C-alpha cells in the first residue's frame, strides 16, 4: 500500500531501502541500486518490495526541440475521465487543515555604531 502524501513512509513496515539512488536496474525479484557515497559508488541489491529515494542524477531529462514542440501543439489533447482509468479511489485525507495564516511581519532592524552602543540597546530591550 502506498503512502497517501501525509509523510507516512517512516511508518511503513521495515524493509530494504536504498536512499539517494543515482542508478537503478530492475530484476524479477530484486532491484540493483547504485548510489554515491563519500568514497565513490556503492551498489546494493535489494529484495522487492523496497523503499527507494532518488538522487538528482537518477533522471537525465531530454530537452524538447523546437520542431517537436510545434508538432506537440498541433496534436489533439485526449481527456480521459478518472472513472475510465479503473483502480480504486484514494482514501479520504487523514489530515485536516484547521487554520493557515502568515507569520507576523518582522520589525525593522537598527544599525549601531559600535559594540558599547549594541550592548546598551540590548540592555534597554531587556535582552541581556
Describe the structure.
The chain is of the alpha+beta class and 128 residues long. It is built from two helices and four strands; from the N terminus they run E-E-E-E-H-H. It has a domain at 1-59. Helices cover 15% and strands 23% of the residues. The chain has a four-stranded mixed β-sheet with strand order 3-2-1-4, with no helix packed on it. A hairpin with a 3-residue loop joins strand 1 and strand 2. The model has no long low-confidence stretch (mean pLDDT 86).
* Quaternary assembly: single chain
How confident is the prediction overall: mean pLDDT? 86
Quantity of strands, as a count? 4
Low-confidence stretches: none
| Number of helical regions | 2
Give me the secondary-structure category: alpha+beta
Principal-axis shape: extended
Q: Could you state the order of secondary-structure elements as H and E?
A: EEEEHH
Helix percentage: 10-25%
Largest sheet: 4 strands, mixed
The proportion of strand residues reads 15-25%
* Spatial gap, N to C terminus: 54 Å
Strand order of the largest sheet: 3-2-1-4
**Using only CA atoms, what is the Rg?**
27 Å
Summarize the structure.
The chain has 128 residues and is of the alpha+beta class. It has helices at residues 66-74, 115-124, and strands at 17-26, 30-37, 40-47, 51-54.
Short descriptors:
alpha+beta, four-stranded mixed sheet, 128 residues
Describe the SSE topology.
Elements: E1 17-26, E2 30-37, E3 40-47, E4 51-54, H1 66-74, H2 115-124
Parallel strand pairs: 1-4
Antiparallel strand pairs: 1-2, 2-3
